[in-house]
Each structure stands twice: as C-alpha cells, then as structure tokens.
Amino acid sequence: MHLIKDCPIIITKAAFKAEEFIRKKIELFTKDCDPFYAVDLEDICNKHVRWLTAMPRVTPHYAVKCNDDILVLKLLGFLGAGFDCASKTEIKKIIDLGISSDRIIYANPCKQSSYVRYAKQVGVETMTFDNEQELMKIKENYSDAKVVLRIVTDDSSAVCQFSMKFGADLETARFLLEKAKEIELDVIGVSFHCGSGQMTSQAFVDAIKNARSIMSYGDKLGFDMKLLDIGGGFPGNTGTDEYFTEIAVAINRALDEHFPVQSGVRIIAEPGRYYVASAYTLATNIIATREMTDPATNEKKLMYYVNDGVYGSFNCVLYDHYIPEPTPLKKDISGKQYTCSIWGPTCDGLDCITSSTCLPKLTTDDWIIWKNMGAYTISGAVQFNGIPFGKPLYFMAKPFWDNVKQAFEQRPVQYTRALKYRMNSECGNEVEDEMLPWEDLEDSILPSILI
C-alpha cells in the first residue's frame, strides 16, 4: 500500500475491509499516532443501491446535518441523491458543488429570516413549516416558495425524538392549511419525521396514514398536494439490513394503500445515518493507561486514555445517545478480560467515552477501533483544548473507482441513472495484500481531487 501526502482517496486493487485498511495504514506509518477514520466509500455506494432496490418510489434526500463530509456529498450528488438542508451553510455547501437547487429541500420548520431570503436567492423553493408564525415569515421573505407542512408523529420508540419540538398536530395542520390559503402561500405537500434511530416500522405506517388525511384536506382547499416527505430515522449500522428491509416493506405497503402510483404524488425521504454510519471506522491510539483497584471488591480496573473524545468524534455519546463499541486492533493478546473505562484526551472530567466495558490489558500506543462511527460524529466535533479529532482517510476498490471517479472532478457532473445498477457486480470481494500506488494509476482525474 502506498499513501501519498494530501491524497484523500486511496484506490485499491480489490475490496478491503476497514480493519484491514487500518492495519495497512498503521504498518506503513508507525510513528503517526493521530486518530483517523477509515472511510469505505463503496459502502455508501452499496447503501444507495440497496435503498433504490428496497424503496424504488422513494427518492432519498441525504440529511447533510448527519455528516457534511464534502467527499460524501460529492459522491451522493453523483449517485443522484437529493439533499435535506437545515441552514444557509448547508444549502451553500450543496450549491457550491454544482448541484441543482431543485434537489434540495430546506427541511427546518423554524428558520432565520435571512436564511429564507438566501434560499430565495439561490433558488431553493421547497421548505417546511409547522406553525403560523413561520408561514407569515415565509410569506414576507419568499412569497413564491413551495411550502411543505410538517406534522407531528409518534416517535416514542426513536433514539432521538423530535416531536416535542417540531410538527403540527392534525387539528393545527388543518388550520395552517386554511391560513396558507388565506395568505396565498403555495402548500405542495406534507412531511414528517419519526425520530432519529426509529425502532419500529409502525411509526412510519401511522404517519403515512395521517399525512394522507392532511393532504386530502389540502386538496379540498384547492392546493395541488403532490409531495410527501417521510423524513429519516432509518438504521445504518452494520447488521441492521434485516430491520431496514422490514421498515421498507411496511412503508411500501402504506404508500401503495394511501398514495398509489396513479395519485401522482412524489415521495422523498431524509436518510442520514442510513448512508454513512457503517462506512466510517475510527482508529484511536492509547496515549496513557492507569490501573485502579476497587476497594470494595479488590477487583483490578483499567483506565485507557485515547486521543479522541466526546468533544471530538465521540460527541455522539452526548448528543446522539450512541454507545460506541471498542475493539482492540492487536490480536496477539491473552484472553483475559478486565473491567475498564475509556477516556478522551482533554482535561475535562466529562470526557468519558465509556464508563464500563471489558477489554484485555492494553498498553500505551496500542490501537482501539470503533465501527459504525459515520453518523453525528464529525459534524459535531470541535478541537477543545486544541486537540484534533479523527480525520478521514478514504478507500475504494479500483472497479468502483472507475464507475464513480467523475464524482470527484472539480467541474459539476451529470447524473447517470444506469450507474446505480452496475456497482455491485463490478466490485470483487477478494482481498489482495498490495494496494495500488497512486502514481501507477493513469488517471487524469486524480490530481484534481487533492485537498
């Protein structure tokens, strides 16, 4: 394997698993102990194919807030996804990639007035609302906007619940439609969000039924209700394929019942963690250790300090209720396990990644890896105490690269629909030891993607 300084994407001869890629990187750069992510771009491509296969009627609009990594945005834009943006900054990031404004939904029900004016300036017409004051704000700042009414859902089974903050109940929703009619603002559909990390498919089914009721009322008032946004909440961790399929089956049935194809209603969704959670594996280095003895039980307990923490990549522990699972990279260790805690590198006692887990005895400079770290990690990280968090290192097999390399050109690219169905068959699963050096790839695009 050859890594060239400042090259963000490593092209491999065949598919690598994240752990294998991490080992290769560490073997090559033994003195580089900074935390880093191994980002499997093929995983994101495969997730897109899986989505289109499971829910062909539902166009994904990636939730930028989940992970705003610019290369992920470029790749998803090339694959044909739309984008769910929640602020001026997120909208600008997508527009600056050369992606058309009609592929963006401004899905924040409570927006700053200047952000609404910016959306008008760049042509982002579609935006959500859930209260009368927001309606009046949009009318004043962007009277030609196409607005989408967000309704409340039962998100009690979700990891992160939103209904206490956003969404109109059904009675209020009908009033808001009447108000929009009165002030001549164009309502084009209904949206909802069943909560991030939704644990039951029934929440989607019930919300789709309620959306049908409100859209029918809007049709009676004279609106052309032709958009349904079913939000996010779809699982993305490794091992959740079966649950995702269960949700997709339930959604498809509900859509066929309440929004059949002949209704002409366009269906979109706002998946975030679904696309990126499993693509990112974080590698952290142990910078210090301590041994403690529990005075009550006389049990030896270990404390490991690693070079990324809750102010950095592990902010998901605080904000996303995530419980990360540590795995020692070193395999030649005894089978004995110890109760231990894992701490971040800052001077704050809050910086605890996990207060109790079981690991073998490790030493300074050993590595711990953390899978499923792509969602709500980088996007919320800061360099508290001046300590950097993990930086991404991307990898992709040559067969995949040949299909998607246009995504990383500087110029805007056109979406090719046929691409969506080619990828799986062209990516081998056999792992080879050697990775192609970049200088051996005769590809004029490579120099243009240096960052």
How would you describe what is shown here?
This protein is α/β, with parallel strands linked by helices and 451 residues long. It folds into 2 domains: 21-41 and 278-393, Beta Barrel (Lyase, Ornithine Decarboxylase, Chain A, domain 1), CATH 2.40.37; 42-277, Alanine racemase (TIM Barrel), CATH 3.20.20.10. It is 29% helix and 22% strand. It is built from 12 helices and 19 strands. The strands form 3 sheets. Strands 1, 2, 13, 14, 15, 16, 17, 18 and 19 form a 9-stranded mixed β-sheet that branches. An 8-stranded parallel β-sheet has the order 5-4-3-12-11-9-7-6. A hairpin with an 8-residue loop joins strand 16 (338-343) and strand 17. It is an enzyme of class 4 (lyase).
Descriptive labels:
ornithine decarboxylase activity, single chain, disordered N terminus, elongated, 451 residues, Lyase, Ornithine Decarboxylase, Chain A, domain 1, alpha/beta, disordered C terminus, TIM Barrel
SSE inventory with pairings:
Layout: E1 9-12, H1 18-28, E2 36-40, H2 41-54, E3 58-63, H3 70-79, E4 82-85, H4 88-95, E5 104-106, H5 113-122, E6 126-129, H6 132-141, E7 146-150, E8 158-160, H7 170-182, E9 186-191, E10 196-198, H8 202-220, E11 227-229, H9 241-258, E12 266-269, H10 273-276, E13 280-293, E14 300-306, H11 315-319, E15 326-328, E16 338-343, E17 352-359, E18 367-370, E19 391-397, H12 398-404
Helix pairs in contact: 2-3, 7-8, 8-9
